[in-house]
Design goal:
Blueprint (H helix, E strand, L loop, with lengths): L8 H7 L6 E4 L3 E5 L9 E5 L11 H8 L2 H11 L5 E5 L15 E6 L19 H12 L3
Antiparallel strand pairs: 1-2, 2-3, 3-5, 4-5
InterPro entries: HINT (IPR039384), Histidine_triad_CS (IPR019808), Histidine_triad_HIT (IPR001310), HIT-like (IPR011146), HIT-like_sf (IPR036265)
Organism: Lactobacillus hominis DSM 23910 = CRBIP 24.179
Protein name: Hit protein
Length: 144
């Protein structure tokens, strides 16, 4: 196990110091049920390397850890014929809602449009024109 931290909750789960309901594990990742169970089957996928969030990932880290998202997602869907969809959620940084500062991906099964899970989104399209869109796009492009 690469570079685990002593005081990180998810590192403790990876080391087996804190119990979890593991659904998948290999040398690269551990996937376990989120204790909150936003919906039944809500699973966290955690790299077995302490990375705070996606801002810390190298391309090699992404290739190594993110390749399991489809495999775990498919197993979740197959686990219950009532599952109609799946939200894949990543919170990067406290301002984005990240609570545990160890990279993790939420796989949240969706059973219906009325399953009490609400994802608020705001539409600011009316505040943008072609010039503003191009300005934002170029600011991002210039950082590759």
């Amino acid at each position: 196990m690469d570079e685990l931290k002593q005081d990180c909750l998810f590192c403790k789960i990876i080391r087996g110091e804190v119990p979890s309901y593991t659904v998948f594990e290999n040398d690269d990742v551990k996937a376990f049920l989120d204790i909150s169970q936003v919906t039944k089957g809500h699973t966290l996928v955690v790299p077995k390397k302490h990375l705070v969030n996606f801002f810390d990932y190298s391309q090699e880290d992404a290739a190594r850890f993110l390749q399991y998202i489809p495999v775990i997602s498919q197993a979740i869907k197959k686990s219950d014929p009532k599952i109609k969809g799946l939200n894949v959620e990543v919170n990067n940084g406290e301002v984005a809602g990240q609570v545990v500062m160890h990279s993790h991906i939420h796989l949240i099964p969706r059973y219906s449009e009325n399953d009490d899970m609400v994802i608020p989104h705001v539409n600011h399209a009316d505040e943008y024109d072609e010039e503003r869109y191009n300005s934002v796009a170029n600011a991002i492009k210039n950082n590759f």
